[in-house]
Design brief:
Layout lengths: L1 H50 L3 H14 L3 H13 L3 H14 L7 H14 L4 H16 L5 H10 L4 H25 L9
Amino acid sequence: MILKAATIQYLRFKRYHNIAILFLVLFCILSCSTTYSQYSSGIFYGKAALTSGEYKDAKQYFEEASKLIRDSQSLSYLAIADYKMNDLDNAEKLIKEAEKIELKASIDHVRILGYKALILLKKNNDEGFIALKEYIEVYKHYYPLPSLHYVEKMSNKKEIQFDKLEKLIEEQISTYDNNIEQFRSTRTGYATGWK
């Protein structure tokens, strides 16, 4: 009789224990997906604000995203927002932090190198030419647009027409990012030919 009561009590405990573990696992799964969902929304809305020239709004979205997941994507976009608002010191700090986090083969690599070059060149920093050369070499490998020739020409002569350079690099990065997004969503585009 005592053994039967102990067995019943053990089975009840085990059932409640299993239910508690199930709820804990579900909570973890839901909170992780919610965090990533909020992060993705922050990146999405931040990019939209950046595209429309609403740099303060973009910065706010990217800051929220980087608080949730501090990765090279959120940090590089946050650096771009600061760059656009002419906060070059913070932009440099963020882009260098993003560079430390990202892997050389990540899709953020081109964006990070391009804006690192722009930030450093705008600060009249000699490191800017080194960063620009690195951007050119990497971009040649990933996605060589014909406009890269003009960037390379400015870099070789060390005669930077900054407005033109900025426009070219931003166009190149935008084209690259758009093609990566197309590949991610449809598995078509330029990236399908990569080896």
